Protein backbone atom coordinates (compact mmCIF):
# COMPACT_ATOMS: atom_id res chain seq x y z
CA UNK A 1 0.00 0.00 0.00
CA UNK A 2 2.90 2.35 0.66
CA UNK A 3 4.11 1.80 -2.91
CA UNK A 4 0.64 2.50 -4.27
CA UNK A 5 0.48 5.69 -2.20
CA UNK A 6 3.86 6.87 -3.53
CA UNK A 7 3.05 5.92 -7.14
CA UNK A 8 -0.74 6.29 -7.53
CA UNK A 9 -0.63 6.15 -11.34
CA UNK A 10 1.15 2.78 -11.52
CA UNK A 11 -1.19 -0.18 -11.78
CA UNK A 12 -0.05 -2.94 -9.44
CA UNK A 13 -1.50 -6.43 -9.60
CA UNK A 14 -0.72 -8.76 -6.70
CA UNK A 15 -1.20 -12.50 -7.10
CA UNK A 16 -1.23 -14.69 -4.01
CA UNK A 17 0.21 -18.17 -4.17
CA UNK A 18 2.86 -20.48 -2.86
CA UNK A 19 6.38 -19.28 -3.55
CA UNK A 20 7.13 -22.39 -5.59
CA UNK A 21 4.02 -21.83 -7.75
CA UNK A 22 4.90 -18.14 -8.17
CA UNK A 23 8.49 -19.01 -9.06
CA UNK A 24 7.18 -21.35 -11.77
CA UNK A 25 4.90 -18.59 -13.11
CA UNK A 26 7.86 -16.21 -13.11
CA UNK A 27 10.05 -18.68 -15.00
CA UNK A 28 7.23 -19.24 -17.52
CA UNK A 29 6.92 -15.48 -18.16
CA UNK A 30 3.48 -15.19 -16.55
CA UNK A 31 4.79 -12.74 -13.90
CA UNK A 32 7.34 -9.94 -14.03
CA UNK A 33 8.40 -10.07 -10.36
CA UNK A 34 7.85 -12.54 -7.57
CA UNK A 35 8.70 -12.98 -3.91
CA UNK A 36 10.43 -16.34 -3.52
CA UNK A 37 12.45 -18.28 -0.98
CA UNK A 38 16.00 -17.68 -2.13
CA UNK A 39 17.08 -21.18 -1.10
CA UNK A 40 18.01 -22.48 -4.53
CA UNK A 41 17.73 -20.17 -7.49
CA UNK A 42 17.45 -21.38 -11.05
CA UNK A 43 20.08 -19.96 -13.40
CA UNK A 44 17.47 -17.97 -15.30
CA UNK A 45 16.49 -15.77 -12.32
CA UNK A 46 18.06 -12.80 -10.63
CA UNK A 47 17.10 -11.89 -7.10
CA UNK A 48 17.37 -9.07 -4.65
CA UNK A 49 17.34 -9.80 -0.91
CA UNK A 50 14.06 -8.77 0.63
CA UNK A 51 13.79 -10.18 4.12
CA UNK A 52 15.42 -12.74 6.39
CA UNK A 53 12.98 -14.25 8.82
CA UNK A 54 12.98 -17.10 11.31
CA UNK A 55 10.48 -19.91 10.88
CA UNK A 56 9.25 -20.63 14.41
CA UNK A 57 7.27 -23.36 16.08
CA UNK A 58 3.90 -21.81 16.92
CA UNK A 59 1.88 -23.13 19.87
CA UNK A 60 -1.03 -22.33 22.17
CA UNK A 61 -0.09 -20.52 25.38
CA UNK A 62 -0.80 -23.60 27.50
CA UNK A 63 1.08 -26.09 25.32
CA UNK A 64 3.89 -28.01 27.10
CA UNK A 65 6.39 -26.60 24.57
CA UNK A 66 5.81 -23.17 26.13
CA UNK A 67 8.17 -24.27 28.93
CA UNK A 68 10.99 -24.92 26.45
CA UNK A 69 13.33 -22.44 24.80
CA UNK A 70 13.87 -24.46 21.62
CA UNK A 71 12.05 -27.34 19.98
CA UNK A 72 13.84 -30.24 18.32
CA UNK A 73 12.49 -31.48 14.99
CA UNK A 74 11.86 -34.89 16.60
CA UNK A 75 9.65 -33.32 19.28
CA UNK A 76 7.90 -31.16 16.69
CA UNK A 77 7.01 -34.16 14.52
CA UNK A 78 5.59 -36.06 17.49
CA UNK A 79 2.76 -33.47 17.60
CA UNK A 80 -0.40 -33.03 15.54
CA UNK A 81 0.38 -30.35 12.95
CA UNK A 82 -1.56 -27.51 11.35
CA UNK A 83 0.25 -26.92 8.07
CA UNK A 84 0.18 -24.92 4.89
CA UNK A 85 -0.78 -26.93 1.82
CA UNK A 86 1.85 -28.30 -0.53
CA UNK A 87 3.36 -25.64 -2.77
CA UNK A 88 3.92 -23.15 0.03
CA UNK A 89 7.46 -22.66 1.31
CA UNK A 90 6.50 -23.42 4.93
CA UNK A 91 5.27 -26.82 3.87
CA UNK A 92 8.26 -27.51 1.67
CA UNK A 93 10.68 -26.66 4.50
CA UNK A 94 8.72 -28.79 7.00
CA UNK A 95 8.59 -31.73 4.57
CA UNK A 96 12.34 -31.41 3.98
CA UNK A 97 12.96 -31.30 7.73
CA UNK A 98 10.79 -34.40 8.28
CA UNK A 99 12.70 -36.28 5.62
CA UNK A 100 16.05 -35.24 7.15
CA UNK A 101 15.08 -36.65 10.55
CA UNK A 102 13.23 -39.64 9.08
CA UNK A 103 9.84 -38.64 10.52
CA UNK A 104 6.35 -38.73 9.05
CA UNK A 105 4.48 -35.47 9.83
CA UNK A 106 1.10 -35.93 11.54
CA UNK A 107 -0.83 -33.31 9.60
CA UNK A 108 -4.26 -32.86 11.14
CA UNK A 109 -5.28 -29.79 9.18
CA UNK A 110 -4.07 -28.04 6.01
CA UNK A 111 -4.89 -24.49 5.00
CA UNK A 112 -3.18 -21.54 3.39
CA UNK A 113 -5.07 -19.05 5.53
CA UNK A 114 -2.83 -17.66 8.26
CA UNK A 115 -5.76 -16.50 10.46
CA UNK A 116 -7.19 -20.03 10.37
CA UNK A 117 -3.79 -21.57 11.23
CA UNK A 118 -3.56 -19.17 14.17
CA UNK A 119 -7.10 -19.94 15.34
CA UNK A 120 -6.69 -23.72 15.22
CA UNK A 121 -3.35 -23.46 17.00
CA UNK A 122 -4.73 -21.08 19.67
CA UNK A 123 -7.45 -23.60 20.44
CA UNK A 124 -4.85 -26.30 21.00
CA UNK A 125 -5.87 -28.56 18.11
CA UNK A 126 -2.33 -28.70 16.79
CA UNK A 127 0.92 -26.81 16.48
CA UNK A 128 2.32 -25.05 13.45
CA UNK A 129 5.18 -23.04 12.03
CA UNK A 130 4.91 -19.37 11.17
CA UNK A 131 7.35 -16.59 10.42
CA UNK A 132 8.02 -14.22 13.30
CA UNK A 133 6.65 -11.32 11.25
CA UNK A 134 3.08 -12.68 11.17
CA UNK A 135 2.69 -13.12 14.93
CA UNK A 136 0.92 -10.22 16.64
CA UNK A 137 1.00 -9.44 20.38
CA UNK A 138 -2.72 -10.17 20.69
CA UNK A 139 -2.61 -13.54 18.89
CA UNK A 140 -2.49 -15.49 22.17
CA UNK A 141 0.20 -17.69 20.67
CA UNK A 142 3.73 -18.51 21.73
CA UNK A 143 6.58 -19.13 19.33
CA UNK A 144 9.79 -21.01 19.91
CA UNK A 145 12.85 -21.50 17.74
CA UNK A 146 13.63 -24.84 16.26
CA UNK A 147 16.81 -26.45 17.56
CA UNK A 148 18.75 -25.50 15.48
CA UNK A 149 16.89 -22.38 14.27
CA UNK A 150 15.53 -22.28 10.73
CA UNK A 151 16.12 -19.03 8.85
CA UNK A 152 14.51 -18.25 5.52
CA UNK A 153 15.82 -15.76 3.01
CA UNK A 154 13.04 -14.24 0.96
CA UNK A 155 13.91 -12.32 -2.15
CA UNK A 156 12.22 -10.57 -4.99
CA UNK A 157 13.09 -12.23 -8.28
CA UNK A 158 12.79 -11.60 -12.00
CA UNK A 159 13.93 -13.35 -15.16
CA UNK A 160 17.50 -12.45 -16.20
CA UNK A 161 16.56 -12.22 -19.85
CA UNK A 162 13.42 -10.13 -19.38
CA UNK A 163 12.81 -6.44 -19.84
CA UNK A 164 11.80 -4.69 -16.62
CA UNK A 165 9.47 -1.79 -17.22
CA UNK A 166 9.89 1.58 -15.48
CA UNK A 167 7.08 0.53 -13.12
CA UNK A 168 8.86 -2.73 -12.23
CA UNK A 169 12.15 -0.92 -11.69
CA UNK A 170 10.36 1.65 -9.48
CA UNK A 171 8.90 -1.22 -7.44
CA UNK A 172 12.34 -2.87 -7.05
CA UNK A 173 13.84 0.44 -5.97
CA UNK A 174 11.00 0.99 -3.50
CA UNK A 175 11.48 -2.50 -2.04
CA UNK A 176 15.23 -1.86 -1.70
CA UNK A 177 14.64 1.36 0.20
CA UNK A 178 11.96 -0.04 2.48
CA UNK A 179 13.15 -3.62 2.87
CA UNK A 180 14.26 -4.93 6.22
CA UNK A 181 16.79 -7.57 5.24
CA UNK A 182 19.14 -8.47 8.08
CA UNK A 183 21.84 -11.12 8.28
Structure commentary:
Helices cover 29% and strands 30% of the residues. The chain has 183 residues and is α/β, with parallel strands linked by helices. The protein folds into two domains: 2-51 and 153-178, D-Maltodextrin-Binding Protein, domain 2 (3-Layer(aba) Sandwich), CATH 3.40.190.10; 54-151, Periplasmic binding protein-like II (D-Maltodextrin-Binding Protein, domain 2, 3-Layer(aba) Sandwich). Helix 4 links the parallel strand 4 (80-83) and strand 5. The two termini are 26 Å apart. 22% of the residues are buried. The mean pLDDT is 89.
Which features would summarize this protein structure in a list?
183 residues; alpha/beta; D-Maltodextrin-Binding Protein, domain 2; five-stranded mixed beta sheet; two-stranded parallel ribbon; 6 helices
Structure described in brief:
This protein has helices spanning 2-6, 19-27, 73-77, 89-100, 114-122, 166-178, and strands at 34-37, 45-60, 70-71, 80-83, 106-110, 128-131, 141-159. It is of the alpha/beta class and 183 residues long.
Amino acid sequence: MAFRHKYPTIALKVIEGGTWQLQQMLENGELDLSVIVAETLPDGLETQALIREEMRVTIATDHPFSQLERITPDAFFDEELVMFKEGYFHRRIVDKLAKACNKQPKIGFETNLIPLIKSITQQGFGISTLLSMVIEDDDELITRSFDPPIWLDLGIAWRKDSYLSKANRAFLEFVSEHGRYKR
